[in-house]
Design brief:
two-stranded parallel sheet, 7-stranded mixed beta sheet, 8 helices, about 300 residues, alpha/beta
């Protein structure tokens, strides 16, 4: 697999942590799928133009002002197609591994779709193309988990625990983008038009209704369309973190990619800077909301 020059620089760490600047608030944001540092041992046989369709390209850059508003921002540097931080460590199909996995596995529907912990295919226009010509060995998969997946989860857990320890609460935003043909990929011919934003709280279980609707109403005020839990509800990360009964609020934000970029070239389009400016306004709204919640004790 030939890697373009602009992707050659590989950060030393699998996750970058951008701490709050100035005032610190119990807000943690993470972008697990925007990484573009493709490891040399990837072994995928797809052209980079197709492989990159798995990226949430530019998502961390869109939200990069969060530390100015008191939040901690984390971003994965590696691509989710290599190993996906938003999947459980056991979300693997034994049939995709060469050798015997040492512990029981629990493949989910995501793995059945080829989109589990180790992706097996990429889709475009409803056509799924395999990533590999051979199975990954046990050692290869274990390396990806140990070197990339676990450090990402450890850094995110540390940021969450630090906020809870210091403030007794945390508001977590799990940041993503979604392809424009998502319903086609899901085989949904009767689906509604895809919204500009899909906010997920696993059907009301991972954050307070007030929090998710504050985000949704603010985005609608900017002129964007918003849907809740359709077609994305949130997966591993918000499921682990979100416990609103313990004042641990977690929600997933999906942006429809054409709102801010060209899906074929991966380049920002004319909507990128306006969206980034709107996000700064949203950050101020959420920072004020969190201060208000903390003042209530």
């Amino acid at each position: 697999m030939s890697v373009p020059d602009f992707l050659q620089a590989r950060p030393a760490e699998p996750v970058l942590v951008h701490p709050a600047r100035g005032e610190v608030l119990p807000i943690v944001c993470d972008s697990p799928h925007s990484g573009t540092a493709y490891p040399e041992d990837f072994g995928a046989v797809l052209p980079m133009s197709l492989l990159r369709r798995g990226e949430d390209t530019h998502v961390a850059a869109l939200w990069d002002r969060w530390p100015e508003f008191g939040a901690t921002l984390l971003e994965a540097t590696f691509p989710r197609t290599y190993v996906d931080p938003n999947r459980n460590e056991s979300d693997l199909d034994p049939a995709q591994i060469e050798g015997e996995w040492p512990v029981p596995l629990s493949p989910s529907i995501k793995t059945q779709q080829g989109l589990g912990l180790i992706w097996q295919r990429i889709s475009k226009a409803g056509v799924a193309t395999p990533l590999y010509e051979r199975k990954r060995t046990v050692a290869e998969v274990q390396h990806r988990i140990a070197r990339y997946w676990r450090p990402y989860h450890a850094a995110l857990a540390q940021a969450i625990d630090d906020s809870v320890s210091r403030f007794g609460a945390v508001w977590h935003l799990n940041l993503h983008s979604m392809p424009n043909d998502v319903y086609q990929r899901l085989g949904r011919s009767d689906a509604p038009p895809l919204a500009d934003f899909v906010l997920g709280d696993r059907d009301g279980t991972t954050c307070s209704p007030e929090f998710i609707h504050l985000v949704g109403d603010t985005l609608k005020g900017f002129g964007y369309s918003v849907a809740y839990n359709e077609p994305y509800k949130g997966v591993e990360l918000i499921g682990r973190i979100g416990q609103p009964q313990l004042n641990r609020h977690s929600m997933q934000i999906e942006i429809r990619r054409p709102v801010y970029m060209d899906e074929d070239t991966r380049e920002p389009n004319a909507g990128f800077e306006p969206l980034r400016a709107h996000f700064a306004e949203l950050m101020q709204v959420l920072a004020d909301y969190v201060r208000q919640q903390m003042s209530r004790g």
